[in-house]
Amino acid sequence: MLYISAVGKRFGPRTVLDAVTLRVEAGEYVAIVGESGVGKSTLLNIIAGLEPADAGEVRFGDAILNSMNDDERTLLRRDNFGFVFQAFHVLPHLTVEQNVGLPLLLRSFEEKKAKGKAKEMISAVGLGGRENSMPRELSGGELQRVAIARALVGEPKLVLADEPTGNLDQENSRQVLALLRGQVKARGAAGILVTHSEAAAATCDRRYLLTSGGLTPG
User: Fold this and answer.
1) pTM of the prediction?
2) Share of the chain above pLDDT 90, in %
3) Cα-flanking dihedrals φ and ψ of residue 18, to 5°?
4) Distance of CA 109 to the CA centre of its chain
5) In Å, how far are 4, 5, 36, 55 from 152, measured between CA atoms?
6) Where are the alpha helices (DSSP H) in the chain?
7) Are 135 and 91 in contact (CB under 8 A)?
8) CATH number of the domain to which 175 belongs
9) Is residue 53 part of a domain?
10) Distance of CA 109 to CAs 5, 14, 77, Å?
11) What CA–CA distance (Å, rounded) separates 176 from 148?
């Protein structure tokens, strides 16, 4: 499903990524572990087509992201990728249901269908009955569940999670990691979890270490 070949990235004289290669198939959930500043988020941005690589190639299915223009990459992300971030990025002026359903409305889903799928996904992440709650009424763990529901409501083929438990306590982290893995697996998606946490990485099928020397299994 996803193949990254010899990807490199520089910022001025500094090499951040060097010859990074990775293959992820449908149904696999992979962790990329590394210290802060080693380039984990940069790699995720390159995979998502949000940032260009200076070398190498990124393939998603039959699409080669390097050869696509900005509009083509935007459509690819919208229709195929789901994102979960450390900072939640839940819109404060929208209800839980509106936050979760927003990606579907942006894809021109009929409103009734979008509401039905949003409600189903909200229930799947354990927030049934909270559809009309506002973000200010939710805990950090609940906000991350909303973010996961929003990422998965469009049935993405690839889920990219960047430090999704960085703002949560230990118990909420455990619950959110189990939920994220369970939902990715239940939907047959591929998942990449970027983290500095060994506990988070342990929930994945495979673990890779990102260093200045590249990406290595382990």
Assistant:
1) 0.89
2) 70
3) -135, 110
4) 22
5) 23, 27, 27, 31
6) 40-47, 70-80, 96-106, 111-124, 140-152, 170-186, 198-201
7) yes
8) 3.40.50.300
9) no
10) 35, 44, 16
11) 9
5 inside domain:
no
Which one-letter DSSP state was computed for residue 205? Answer: S
Q: Which domain holds residue 83?
A: 27-48+78-217
Q: Which residues contact 157 (CB under 8 A, 6 or more apart)?
A: 1, 26, 61, 80, 81, 189, 190
Tell me which residue has tokens 């500095």.
196
Distances (CA, A) of 140 to 15, 71, 93, 135: 35, 34, 17, 9
Please state, in angstroms and rounded to a whole number, the distance separating the CA atoms of residues 102 and 104.
5
Q: Which of 48, 59, 80 is nearest to 6 (CA)?
A: 59
Decide if 120 is inside a domain: yes
Amino acid at 128: G
Would you say 72 and 52 are in contact if contact means Cβ atoms under 8 Å apart?
no
Structural domains counted in the chain:
1
User: What's the pLDDT tens digit per position in 1-22?
Assistant: 899 999 999 998 988 999 999 9
The H or E element that residue 20 is part of is strand 14-24
Helix, strand, coil percent values for the chain (each to nearest 5): 40, 30, 35
- 3-state SS assignment for residue 198: helix
